[in-house]
Amino acid sequence: MAVCSDKTVLNQWYAIGATEEIEPERMTETVLLEEELSYTVDALGSPKVWRTGHDAGELVPSQCVYGYVWTCLGEASGEVFAIPEFSEPDRRNMNAATIGVNVSAPRAIENFLDMGHFPYVHTDILGVEPHTEVKEYDVEISIENDEILATRCRFFQPMASQASGGGADVEYIYRVPHPFCSVLYKSSPVDDKRMDVIAVFLQPVDQEHIRAHMMLSVLDEDNDDKSIRLFQQTIFGQDKPILENQFPKRLPLDPRAETPIRADKSAITYRRWLSRKGITYGVIPAAA
Amino acid sequence: MITLYDYELSGNCYKLRLFMSMLDIEYEVIAVDFYPGKEHKSEWFLEINPLGQLPVLEDNGFVLRDAQAILIYLASKYDAGGKWYPTDQPQTLGDISQWLAFADSITSTSSAARLHDGLFYDFDIEACRAGAHRLFRIFDEHLWFAEKQNRNWICPGDHPTIADIACFPYVILSEEGGISRQDYPAIRRWTDRVKRIPGFVVMSGVFPAGPAFKAAG
Known about the structure:
Chain A is of the alpha+beta class. Helix content of chain A is 17%, strand content 35%.
C-alpha cells in the first residue's frame, strides 16, 4: 500500500537524482512520497528504480530526462513535460545542486514564482532597493497543456546571472507544468533573442520535506560549470531559511487562509490550480 | 595577496570571509565545488590540503588550513590594534583557545546536522542535534552570565575576539539542521550583536540585523 493516498500526486513523474552524479552500476538510496527506493544507472545510461520498503524489489517505471533519473510510484501516464530548449546544441545543461529543504513542495514552488522577495532576500543579485515594485504581469492556465504560464514579468536585477555585466531589467516567464515542478525562463545576458532556463524539479520526501533538484540550461560560453552552479547555489542558499520558516509548512489552499497582494497573482493561480486538481499532499485543502 | 579557497555555503569558509571583511583585508577567492562536485577531494586540492577540507588560505606562499588556525594567523598579522587576539594577555589567549575548540564542537554537531538535512550526509541526525543543544545550553548560560557582568562578547574585554567569529556561523545556521535557537535568548542577543560589528557581511542563509539595530548602534 502506498503511503500517499493522493492519486494525482502519486501518478506524476519525479526526478530523484542527477545522472551525472551517479557512478555507473552503483546503487543509490532515496525516499519519494515516504517510500524507500533504490536506483542505478547502467553503463549505457539506462536507469532502474525499485522499491526497498514495502514490496521490496518491485521495479517501478523509470526514465532519464533532463539529466535526472525520473520515476513514478502510481500509474505512469504520458511523458515528463517538455522543455524543448534543453536539446538546443549550444546550451549548457547541468544540475546546479540537489538540496534538501524542510518545507512542503508547494510552498517551495510558490516561493520560486514570487518576484517580490528579490530585493530583500537576494539583495544586490536578483534585486535591490528601491527597485522593489513587481510590475503588472499576466498569468493564465493553458488549457491545452494543463500548465500555468506567467508572462510579461519584468524585474530590475543588479546581477541576473553569472554571465551578467551589470544591472538590467530582466524579463521572466514562469511555467508550472507539474504540481511540484516549475520552469523559469529569463532574458539571456548574452543573446537578446533567447532565454536561459532554470527549472526546479521537486522530489517530495514527505509532506514537509523535499529534495530540490535545480536544472540549468543556459547560454554562456565564458564561465565554467562550477561558477554557473555556485551562482545558483548562492541564490538557493538565500531562499532556504525563508522556505524553512514558512508557517504552516503545508500550503493552505483556502483563499481566505493567507492574504495575497496583486504581485501574488501567479501564487493565487497556482493555489487554485492545485485545488481544482484535488491535490491533498503537502497542502491544507480548502474546506469543502 | 591573500587567496581563500572558498565554498559559499560553507560556514567555516564564511568565518574567514567575515573576519577579513571586518579587518578590511583584500583577498581573492578560488571557488571550490564542494557540492555536488566534491572538488575538495580532488587530486589538485588534496595537494594543497591532504585532509580534503575547506577552507585553506594562502598568503604570499604561506599555506594554512583550518578555519580557527587561520583566524589566529589573520588576527596576529593584520589586526594592528591587537584586539581580536591580544597576544600580550595570557588569560585571554587561553580563553580564546578554549572557545575555538568549542567552535569545532559546534561544527561537528550543528554543521553536521545541516549537512545531513541539506546535502544528505550520512550522519546520526538525532545525535548531531542533541549534541548541538547540549553545547548551546552551555553557550547560552555562559553568555547570560557575561551579560550580567556587562560583557557583550564570549571572552572578557570590551572588544570581540576571534572566538566570537569562530562560534558565529554554525550557531546562526543551526536551523538549517533543524536546531532551533528559541530556547537560547542570550545566544540570540549575542548573534544580533555580532551582526552589528562594523564590516559584518552575510552569507547565503544569514541575514543582516534589521535597520532598528543600526539606528540603535
